[in-house]
Structures are given as C-alpha cells and as structure tokens.
Design goal:
Helices cover 57% and strands 10% of the residues. By secondary structure, it is of the alpha/beta class. It has 2 domains: 139 residues, Response regulator (Rossmann fold); 72 residues, Winged helix-like DNA-binding domain superfamily/Winged helix DNA-binding domain (Arc Repressor Mutant, subunit A), CATH 1.10.10. Helix 9 crosses helix 10. The radius of gyration is 19 Å and the shape is elongated.
C-alpha cells in the first residue's frame, strides 16, 4: 500500500492522529493547517489524494475544493472530506462540490484507510484502462449517504405521495436490504444467493424505479413508501 496524501485540517490533535494512522499504513502524508497552506503544498508535492476538513478559518473546505477543481491539473484528484458536519444536506453539498468520499467525525480509522485505498485503486485503474477495478470508495460513499437518509426516513416518506410498483418478492427483499445499507456481498449472504444474482436484481430495481445509483434508489423508495 503506498501513495502521497495531502491532509488539510486546522485541528492539531486530529491532524496528527490521522497522519500517524495513515503513515502506519505505509502512506506518505504531507500536512497543512489551513486551505491557503494546503493550496501551496498541493502544487509543490502533487499528491495522489487530498483529505480536507470543511470547517476551517478564512477559507473553508467547500471553497478550497472549488479552487482545486477549477485547476485543470487537479480535476481528477481524489478528495475526501473529513468533517464534524454529518447532516445529509452537508454530505450532499460536499458531493455536489466534487468530493469523492465524505467521512463524518468521529470515524473509524480503518474505514478511512479503506476509502483512501479504494480511491487510489480506482485512479490507478483509470490510468491503465482497467475498468473492472473494484469501486470501493464509490460504494462507501453511497452506503454512507443511504445511512444518512435512513435517519430522516419519516420526514422523507411524508413529503411526497407513494406510488405502486410491481416488485417480485425477491426484488422487494433486495430493495429492503439495499435500504439497510448492505453491499451486494452482504445481501447475497443474507439471501443465500450469488453476488451476480444480487447485481441482476439491483439492476432490475434501477430499471423499474428509473434510478441509476443505490442512493437514488433508496431515496426513491423512501419517498414513495416502497420499503418497510
């Protein structure tokens, strides 16, 4: 496991802890305590991945990410937001700003390492044309967003009328488990079937609901009363 990481966070204790954990996992970590310093370091070291806090003085994480994405050199740079702001609206704003993953504090260090490695693997695969590399970070992002939505399930469900869609019993079972935030491998184990079959059911659910991602599917299901 290897890679150059730029960590931008104005909280010394957290910054040092994250740096130590990532370095123990064989990453090289460059640190900055604000976005201005982070921007200077970004141009100097050209890291493979950026981890940034959102709540920072003067220039916050959203503004910093906008600056990063407007530079052609860093448009494809993987970015992880690590922040105390964990509301669904904050997550959505982060993804709309162009981050690739969003971890609310407190977080599991092992999850951070898994997301970082997944993003680096995806970037490496894109560079070599290996399109079948596992998209761990994207799945983690979707699962995190699904779980955030579940915390607001009642408010979402009451906001719009329900619809009627004919799901088979197995499709309904898969939908319920996707809505719990389970990944395909976990769903396959729960239903005693293959991962390939689960993928087929999820694809059918996308087709029947007119959605194209797990988060869209779960939001649609919650808004229209399609899950328990």
């Amino acid at each position: 496991m290897a890679g150059q990481i730029l960590l931008v966070d104005d909280e010394p204790g957290l910054r040092e802890a994250v740096q130590a954990y990532l370095e123990d996992s064989d990453f090289t970590v460059h640190v900055a305590n604000n976005a201005t310093q982070g921007w200077e370091l970004l141009q100097q070291v050209s890291p493979d991945l950026l981890i940034s806090d959102i709540m920072m003085p003067q220039v916050d994480g959203y503004q910093f990410l906008k600056q990063v994405r407007e530079d052609a050199r860093f448009q494809s740079l993987p970015v992880v937001f690590l922040t105390a702001r964990g509301m669904t609206s904050d997550r959505i704003q982060g993804y709309q700003a162009g981050c690739d993953a969003y971890l609310p504090k407190p977080f599991d260090p092992d999850e951070l390492v898994a997301i970082v490695q997944g993003l680096l693997d995806r970037r490496a695969a894109a560079r070599t044309g290996e399109g079948d590399a596992p998209d761990i970070a994207e799945m983690a992002r979707q699962i995190a967003e699904i779980k955030a939505m579940l915390s607001q399930k009642n408010a979402i469900a009451q906001s719009t009328p329900s619809v009627k869609i004919d799901f088979t019993p197995r499709e309904q079972s898969v939908l319920e488990l996707v809505a719990e935030g389970l990944m395909n491998k976990e769903i396959a184990r729960r239903l005693n079937t293959s991962v390939r079959n689960v993928e087929k059911y999820v694809s059918r659910l996308f087709g029947k609901t007119g959605t194209s991602s797990r988060t869209e599917l779960v939001r649609y299901a919650l808004e229209n009363g399609l899950t328990q």
